[in-house]
Predict the structure.
Amino acid sequence: MATTNQKASPKKSEGFQGVRGAFWIIVVCACIAFTLFYTWFGNPMHFQDGEAMTTPADVWGTIFKGGVVVPVIHTLLLTVLAMSIERYFALKTAFGKGSPPKFVANIKAALDANDFKKANELCDKQKGSVANVVKASLNAYADMESGANANLKKAQKVAKIQQAHEEATQLEMPTLTMNLPIIATIVTLGTLTGLLGTVTGMIKSFSALSAGGGADSAALSAGISEALINTAFGIATSWCAVVSYNFYTNKVDKLTYALDEVGYSIAQTYEANHTEEA
């Protein structure tokens, strides 16, 4: 029995499977964001008054006037971009070498023809998480036809095939969904951080209005700039995070549905090809 279970267990996909230490991605992005903020955006050449750095001369100086919240939002933005790239390569490995819809269609055609040798060859050629799950179901199918499981009823054998498919799917799911919760968190965190920068900017603006009973135009414009810049970057960060999260979640869902369809087809093929033993 131990040998049978080992045979039905899928091997992990070869190639890039994602970055598990997402914390270090955030740390690297933070280092990049704060370095750019103080070395490039805060460079005196981007201000009309040089070292005083009160009147921006270009867009880079204007971004610097957004305050210390800007590099925090930039950290979140860079994290979304980095993890989106990470998810792209991880899912590309998980999907295998060929088109998953075409692979699923070919597997179903092989099952309809009861050509399990061809189905196994397709899995070996496809590779990736998709092929691993299908391979596990095909191995379970073969195990149910072996003499070691002759004492099981047909319904139990079908259930065993379905169980092997579900276990293989659950084994691959962490690779497919890794780091997506972080991107989902940044959807809200980006907006809230931008709102924080907006509030601090407006506080500075109202402080400038109330100082000495008159309006300091430089301080007032600095506060408004901080508010608007942080709002803009906060919205941009959340926008990128929403698009990235929904895009990759949709791809994972489509893959899961395709796998469920193949798993159901394999179980139904076994049920159709075998009669209940007395």
About this structure: Confidence is low (pLDDT under 50) at residues 1-9. Residues 217-273 form the longest helix (57 residues). The CA atoms of residues 66 and 229 lie 6 Å apart. The two ends are 23 Å apart (CA to CA).
